[in-house]
Amino acid sequence: VYWLKAQQRDAHPQLSAGFCRELDFYRQFQQADAPDFLLPFYCSQNTEMLCIQQETFQDYLIVPDAPAFFTLAPSQFSPSQIQTRLLQVLDSLEQLTRLGYLHADLKAEHWREWAGQVKLIDFEQLQAINAPAASDMTATPRYMAPELFHGEAKTLASDLYALGIIVYEWLTQRRLQAKSYQDWAYLHCQQLKIELPAAYLGFQDLLEAML
After folding, report:
1. Which positions ≥6 away from 155 have C-beta within 8 Å?
2. pTM of the entire structure?
3. Per residue in 148-159, pLDDT tens?
């Protein structure tokens, strides 16, 4: 089973720009060794066309279906296994950073597991490290670092904050709740309190550093 990602010609300009950004990121590895955090992939070439229900696509991306990394509850792993899994996740993010990029839109579903390795997907919001703050904020409020609510630029710290929220929700098996953008801002900027189950208190310092 594979995932196919293509773009309609009349797509919203912002969505189209994100799709092109992701394709450009993958295409730089078409003729070179791809980093370990990428799933096997295929990007269309300029001469290839894809027809779906009488609509033709020139640009598309194909990657294999891969299970979500954070699907299994932490209770199924020992503390040392949890530590190993978290180190794998951090390593995949570090690899992306070494290439000079921020993911800039991390969510739990963006980590996948393939052939025993941790993979990252969905690079539509990818940006260069130290890029200036965008005029429009594209981050998801659930995972936004406090500084992003104040209009500051995304950084490695904001990527790590998003990952911290993902790990916190995974370890507690509880989703953070807020009803509006303003509520999310209050939660992240003023009200977030890390309370881990007793079995996972060994990860308290790590999460507090990330958050």
Report:
1. 102, 129, 130
2. 0.91
3. 999 999 999 999
